[in-house]
Design a protein that fits this description.
The complex is a heterotrimer of chains A (about 90), B (about 80) and C (about 140). Chain A is mainly α and about 90 residues long. In chain A, about 80% of the residues lie in helices and about 0% in strands. By secondary structure, chain C is mainly alpha-helical. Chain C is built from seven helices and three strands; from the N terminus they run ααβααββααα. Chain C is globular and about 50 Å long. Classes of the chains: A mainly alpha (about 90), B mainly alpha (about 80), C mainly alpha (about 140). Chains in contact: A-B, A-C, B-C.
Chain lengths: ~90, ~80, ~140
Amino acid sequence: MIEAFLLGVIAAASLTAATFFLKFWKKSHDTFFLAFVVYFLTEGGIRVAHLFFTHPNEGSPWIYVIRLIALILILAAILRKNYGSPAGG
Amino acid sequence: MAAAVYLIGVLTSLMCAVLLLRGYSRGRKKLLLWSGLCFAGLAVSNLLIFVDLVLVPEVDLYRYRLATAAVAMALLVYGLIWESD
Amino acid sequence: MLQTLTEQHQFDSEVYQFIFDQIESVPHLEALLLIWNSRPQPWTIENLTQRLYVSRDLALRLLQDLVRRGLIAIVPGPPEGYRYESASREQEQLMTAVDATYRRELVRISTMIHAKPSASVQEFARAFRLTKERP
């Protein structure tokens, strides 16, 4: 019960954070923030997915892949901000 | 494979935390403090997953993993609401 | 005439770039210009609070932000004062242009400042800069 509650808290907070980062992207036109939008959306989505697994440690391997992609997007965004083309906001 | 993903998660979160807290020390914008602490907490949460699954598989740390992530996210949401103008 | 116009245009874009990069809010700009216009006389927090019609807390934060950006300097007290910090002749020319442009185009500049992402959001993105000279 408490695990489901905590999953819900994390999912709701992640969705909220994603919305803020979406707003930051809209205001600043800096695509850097989009990586965080994706990251927090996937984190929220993963927590929701965990509701359907009784043993969350096993779960579907797809969850690891999605999380890995979100993390790589953040690293890529950081690299692009520092070494990417000047046109990339 | 799973362990590798969680370790990458730890390192990425840790890097974000360090960069944001460094930014906070320079500009004193509280948004960076709260988001830096959030990523530090997420790094701890990811580390706990690794500890839980690999180091102490006989003990279930699931609630503690979730609790640290929940606290971390609460800090971030607090910072986003009050400090992002 | 054309040369004057193109010089003006070049100044304007530098002014707007300066405001975009360094100015966090309209009170920040007004404080900076007040301090600039009475240089090298320092201002105390109390004087600034009265002149700008802001709270003392806000005035203190404004001044700390401006000090951190190297735009003004602290004069040790008591009472503690803040005066313009001259970095270079180019900086002084820029400040003159900023002052003149703000007087002329107050609405446009205020609108531009309000359209910017907040300083906190800009700092967030800036925190991930590992190399120099990149947005």
